[in-house]
Structure formats: structure tokens, C-alpha cells
Design brief:
The structure holds two protein chains of two kinds.
Chain A lengths: L4 E3 L2 E4 L5 E6 L6 E7 L5 E8 L2 E5 L7 E4 L6 E5 L8 E8 L8 E2 L3 E5 L1
Parallel strand pairs in A: 2-11
Antiparallel strand pairs in A: 1-3, 3-8, 4-5, 4-9, 5-6, 7-8, 9-10, 9-11
Chain B lengths: L2 E4 L4 E4 L4 E3 L1 E4 L5 E7 L5 E7 L5 E4 L2 E4 L9 E3 L8 E8 L5 E3 L3 E6 L1
Parallel strand pairs in B: 2-12
Antiparallel strand pairs in B: 1-4, 3-9, 5-6, 5-10, 7-8, 8-9, 10-11, 10-12
The chains are: A mainly beta, B mainly beta.
């Protein structure tokens, strides 16, 4: 069964450093998303991406965040200057176009900012 | 904005017991509804879905029916197993595909 692949599975970074979280969506999917889950809290929408541009973003997705699809297969989330409160599980998801809006999620990257 | 309210957990059941996890939603328009499951240490997996009123989603013995009149999508299973222990998330998706999740309900099934 096709999978969404995320790397790394766990990243530890110092406050103020830049991090790039990587995702390889399913090849025929057209819509891409990043969500995050702070430990013990709900899953929160960050950003959606379609046709090489952001289609929607949440209040969480401020100027410190950016997304890119650099080569037609990877989909990256960059945090420019990490803060302690960025520590969370970050999930990439993709879906195919159509009425079925169910996502295929990746297994997540646990980001720990120290 | 859209919102999803789930039954508070944690829920602890004995093996073979009947499971219900309540979920209600508020949304404009006609969202699609989903249940996702998160096993310990893993990501989110789509468990089942329903895209219009009165649809029943089912998978692995779990079922949920899209009830527009009560804006609900309760998850049920007739006989739970220890392996069903996980966190269950109810979610809705708008026409643009953006999803809103409930807080999650932790289910523990004891042998």
C-alpha cells in the first residue's frame, strides 16, 4: 500500500536553529498538508499546499515557517528559528483530488527543541 | 469556524466489551467525516470515513454513521480487543480538504 514517508523520525535541535522536515507524499496525490501535535494535545492544521502554492495556512504558520516542493517529489517544512514551543510531532499528509478527503498521513517527525 | 467535540477519555474496557466513542461536529456546508486511529508511538491512520448524510463507514469491525440531523458521527465496535488500545480522533474535512480534529479519546482494553 502506498505510504507517505517522513524523515527524520526524530530531530533534536537547539533553540534558534533552523530545521527542515522532509516528506515524500504518495506519487499521484495532488494536495499536501502539514499538521502538528503537541504532546498530549490535539492535532492542529498548519498549512495546505496545492499546485505549487500555499492554499491555506493557520495562525500558527507565521513567518518562521515555510513550505516547499523543490523537486516534484519532496515536500518540506522549514522552521527558520526554532522556539521551545515548536517541540511537537509534525505530520505530513497527502490526498488525491476528489470527494474522498481522507488523508494518508506519514508516521511523523518528533521535533524536540532544547 | 468548524469544530469537533469528542467524548472525553480515557476509556477503559474489558476485552469483548462494546465500544462507543461519541463525536459531534459544527460545520458550515456538508463536511466529510472521519475517524483516525493513533497507536502508541505511531502516526495517524485513517480508520473509516463517510462523505454524506446517512453514509456508514466501516473498517476492522468499527462503524460510524453520518447523522446530519444530530451532527454526530459516533464510533462503535461490538467487541473490542486488546489490540484496539489506541487514541481515536474524530475529524471533519471541508470542501477545500482542510481537516479539523477532535481532542482524541484514549482507549485502553484490558484482557
Amino acid at each position: 500500500e502506498p505510504e507517505v514517508t517522513q524523515t527524520p523520525s526524530h530531530q533534536v535541535t537547539q533553540m534558534g536553529q533552523e530545521v527542515i522536515l522532509r516528506c515524500v507524499p504518495i506519487s499521484n496525490h495532488l494536495y499536501f498538508y502539514w499538521y502538528r501535535q503537541i504532546l498530549g494535545q490535539k492535532v492542529e492544521f498548519l498549512v495546505s499546499f496545492y499546485n505549487n502554492e500555499i492554499s491555506e495556512k493557520s495562525e500558527i504558520f507565521d513567518d518562521q515557517f515555510s513550505v516547499e516542493r523543490p523537486d516534484g517529489s519532496n515536500f518540506t517544512l522549514k522552521i527558520r528559528s526554532t522556539k521551545l514551543e515548536d517541540s511537537a510531532m509534525y505530520f505530513c499528509a497527502s490526498r488525491i483530488q476528489g470527494e474522498d478527503y481522507g488523508y494518508t498521513f506519514g508516521s511523523g517527525t518528533r521535533l524536540t527543541v532544547v | 469556524g468548524d469544530s469537533v467535540t469528542q467524548m472525553e477519555g480515557p476509556v477503559t474496557l474489558s476485552e469483548e466489551a462494546f465500544l462507543t466513542i461519541n463525536c459531534t461536529y459544527t460545520a458550515t456546508g456538508y463536511p466529510s467525516l472521519f475517524w483516525y486511529v493513533q497507536y502508541p508511538g505511531e502516526g495517524l491512520q485513517l480508520l473509516l470515513k463517510a462523505t454524506k448524510a446517512d453514509d456508514k463507514g466501516s473498517n476492522k469491525g468499527f462503524e460510524a454513521t453520518y447523522r446530519k440531523e444530530t451532527t454526530s458521527f459516533h464510533l462503535e465496535k461490538g467487541s473490542v480487543q486488546v489490540s484496539d488500545s489506541a487514541v481515536y480522533f474524530c475529524a471533519l474535512s471541508d470542501r477545500a480538504g482542510k481537516s479539523t480534529f477532535g481532542d482524541g479519546t484514549t482507549l485502553t482494553v484490558k484482557p
